[in-house]
Here is the input.
Amino acid sequence: MKQVELLKKLMTLALVEVDETKLGGILRDLEKIVEMFNKILNLNLPNDLEPLYTTYFGERNVREDVEESVEESERCELLDRELEEGYLKAPRTL
Here is the structure.
Protein backbone atom coordinates (compact mmCIF):
# COMPACT_ATOMS: atom_id res chain seq x y z
CA MET A 1 0.00 0.00 0.00
CA LYS A 2 1.36 3.42 -0.93
CA GLN A 3 2.05 5.89 1.85
CA VAL A 4 -0.62 8.33 0.68
CA GLU A 5 -3.23 5.56 0.60
CA LEU A 6 -2.20 4.44 4.09
CA LEU A 7 -2.44 8.02 5.37
CA LYS A 8 -5.90 8.41 3.84
CA LYS A 9 -7.01 5.15 5.48
CA LEU A 10 -5.69 6.36 8.85
CA MET A 11 -7.52 9.66 8.38
CA THR A 12 -10.75 7.76 7.65
CA LEU A 13 -10.32 5.57 10.73
CA ALA A 14 -9.61 8.63 12.89
CA LEU A 15 -12.52 10.55 11.34
CA VAL A 16 -10.15 13.35 10.32
CA GLU A 17 -10.32 15.39 7.15
CA VAL A 18 -7.17 17.05 5.81
CA ASP A 19 -6.73 19.18 2.72
CA GLU A 20 -4.95 17.27 -0.07
CA THR A 21 -2.27 19.97 -0.29
CA LYS A 22 -1.16 19.22 3.29
CA LEU A 23 -0.70 15.47 2.84
CA GLY A 24 2.95 15.79 1.80
CA GLY A 25 3.84 17.66 4.99
CA ILE A 26 1.97 15.18 7.14
CA LEU A 27 3.75 12.27 5.45
CA ARG A 28 7.14 13.90 6.10
CA ASP A 29 6.22 14.41 9.77
CA LEU A 30 5.08 10.79 10.11
CA GLU A 31 8.33 9.57 8.53
CA LYS A 32 10.31 11.59 11.08
CA ILE A 33 8.27 10.09 13.93
CA VAL A 34 8.80 6.53 12.64
CA GLU A 35 12.52 7.26 12.19
CA MET A 36 12.75 8.49 15.80
CA PHE A 37 11.04 5.33 17.13
CA ASN A 38 13.37 3.16 15.02
CA LYS A 39 16.36 4.93 16.57
CA ILE A 40 14.96 4.26 20.05
CA LEU A 41 14.41 0.58 19.19
CA ASN A 42 18.01 0.28 17.97
CA LEU A 43 19.49 1.61 21.21
CA ASN A 44 21.43 -0.96 23.20
CA LEU A 45 19.56 -0.50 26.48
CA PRO A 46 19.72 -2.91 29.43
CA ASN A 47 16.66 -5.13 29.90
CA ASP A 48 16.23 -4.11 33.54
CA LEU A 49 15.96 -0.39 32.75
CA GLU A 50 13.02 1.08 34.69
CA PRO A 51 10.78 3.66 33.01
CA LEU A 52 10.75 7.25 34.24
CA TYR A 53 6.95 7.41 34.24
CA THR A 54 3.99 5.72 35.82
CA THR A 55 1.41 3.91 33.75
CA TYR A 56 -2.08 2.78 34.58
CA PHE A 57 -1.06 -0.80 33.93
CA GLY A 58 0.74 -3.00 36.40
CA GLU A 59 2.02 -2.01 39.81
CA ARG A 60 1.89 1.55 41.03
CA ASN A 61 5.17 3.12 42.04
CA VAL A 62 3.86 6.35 43.49
CA ARG A 63 3.89 7.52 47.07
CA GLU A 64 0.87 7.21 49.31
CA ASP A 65 -1.09 10.42 49.88
CA VAL A 66 -0.57 11.98 53.28
CA GLU A 67 -3.18 14.37 54.57
CA GLU A 68 -1.66 17.47 56.18
CA SER A 69 -3.21 20.48 57.81
CA VAL A 70 -2.04 23.98 56.95
CA GLU A 71 -2.10 26.84 59.40
CA GLU A 72 -4.19 29.88 58.44
CA SER A 73 -1.07 32.07 58.16
CA GLU A 74 0.58 29.57 55.77
CA ARG A 75 -2.60 29.38 53.70
CA CYS A 76 -2.71 33.17 53.33
CA GLU A 77 0.98 33.23 52.42
CA LEU A 78 0.40 30.68 49.66
CA LEU A 79 -2.60 32.59 48.31
CA ASP A 80 -0.76 35.94 48.38
CA ARG A 81 2.04 34.84 46.04
CA GLU A 82 2.42 36.77 42.83
CA LEU A 83 1.56 35.46 39.42
CA GLU A 84 4.15 35.89 36.70
CA GLU A 85 2.84 35.53 33.16
CA GLY A 86 -0.10 33.53 34.50
CA TYR A 87 2.06 31.14 36.56
CA LEU A 88 2.51 30.98 40.32
CA LYS A 89 5.99 32.10 41.33
CA ALA A 90 7.78 29.46 43.39
CA PRO A 91 11.26 29.22 44.92
CA ARG A 92 13.96 28.14 42.52
CA THR A 93 14.94 24.48 42.79
CA LEU A 94 18.02 22.65 41.63
Summary: Strands lie at 83-84, 87-88. The mean pLDDT is 77.
